[in-house]
Amino acid sequence: MEKIKIVTDCTCDLSEELIQKYDIDVIPLIVSIGGKSYKENEISQTKMFELIKEHRELPKTAALTPHNYYEIFKGYIDQGYSVLYMGIGAHFSSCYQNTLIGAEELPKDKIRIVDSANLSSGIGLLVLKAAKFRDLGYSLDQIATEVEKIVPRVRTMFSIDTLEYLHKGGRCSGTARVFGTMLKIKPIIRVVDGKMVVAQKPRGKYKAALDAQLNYFMHDKDNIDKEHIFITHCLAKDEDIEYLKETITKEIPVENLHVTNASSVISTHCGPRTIGILYIVNE
């Protein structure tokens, strides 16, 4: 049977437990601040925000080079694996383009690169599906084909406590229009067609933003894939996490409700007290 390695990057926001359980390999990206660069797995959320306060600057994040990806992929292929790679979406980073370039000189039948068109555990949901298909004995091409069908059905949304990080990073359309009046706004950011957009602008207490997310969720609840649902956050309050967990589990019989921390790379762009619900809808 074909040996297949499922590879992603740290922006998938899967827990170490899930990574180990489903035999997934995760590539760390680079976070730079204060003249020093860190691999994502070398810097925690808390440490990163301490450094932001200390240096009074936002971190910069960087993709690996095409040669880096070539070396990583070649290493797996040399061990006898075929490789399915799926990391942060093409519109969010140069990672996707660099992986394509890095794979150009490798055997075409040994590697497939899928654009997740997503970020955070929106990628993680797809990676878990890929691992499931691998374990069912699907071929490399079959896994890629099936996962590509699921990509448009991933629903990713977050409540953001402050637009400062997204606005300065310039990765979310619509932030400029609301940045000047953001004091009382707790925006809902959604991934639509592979890009982040400001979907709603709830005002007042943070619970209004959580309820806005839950409204989207309830609209889909009869058509949600119950195998995996994620609540992913960056230094969210326990009460916010519990509120989402209790409401979701009360509404649908979730098989696996995962609570995971956003990676430092994702946290760099969303800021503290960000929390989201991420899931897949059925066809």
Describe the secondary-structure layout.
Elements: E1 4-9, H1 16-21, E2 24-27, E3 30-33, E4 36-39, H2 45-55, E5 60-62, H3 66-78, E6 82-85, H4 95-103, E7 111-113, H5 121-135, H6 140-150, E8 154-159, H7 164-169, E9 172-173, H8 175-179, E10 188-192, E11 195-200, H9 206-220, E12 229-234, H10 238-251, E13 257-261, H11 264-270, E14 274-280
Parallel strand pairs: 1-2, 1-6, 6-7, 9-11, 12-13
Antiparallel strand pairs: 3-4, 3-5, 8-10, 8-14, 10-11, 12-14
Can you tell me about this structure?
There is one protein chain. The chain is α/β, with parallel strands linked by helices. It folds into 2 domains: 4-32 and 61-151, Rossmann fold; 153-280, 2-Layer Sandwich (Hypothetical Protein Tm841, Chain: A,domain 3), CATH 3.30.1180.10. Helix content is 40%, strand content 23%. It is built from 11 helices and 14 strands. It has helices at residues 16-21, 45-55, 66-78, 95-103, 121-135, 140-150, 164-169, 175-179, 206-220, 238-251, 264-270; strands at residues 4-9, 24-27, 30-33, 36-39, 60-62, 82-85, 111-113, 154-159, 172-173, 188-192, 195-200, 229-234, 257-261, 274-280. The strands form 3 sheets. It has a 7-stranded mixed β-sheet with strand order 9-11-10-8-14-12-13, with helices on both faces. Helix 3 (66-78) crosses helix 4 and helix 9 (206-220) runs parallel beside helix 10 (238-251).
Key structural traits:
four-stranded parallel sheet, Rossmann fold, 283 residues, Hypothetical Protein Tm841, Chain: A,domain 3, seven-stranded mixed sheet, single chain, 40% helix, alpha/beta
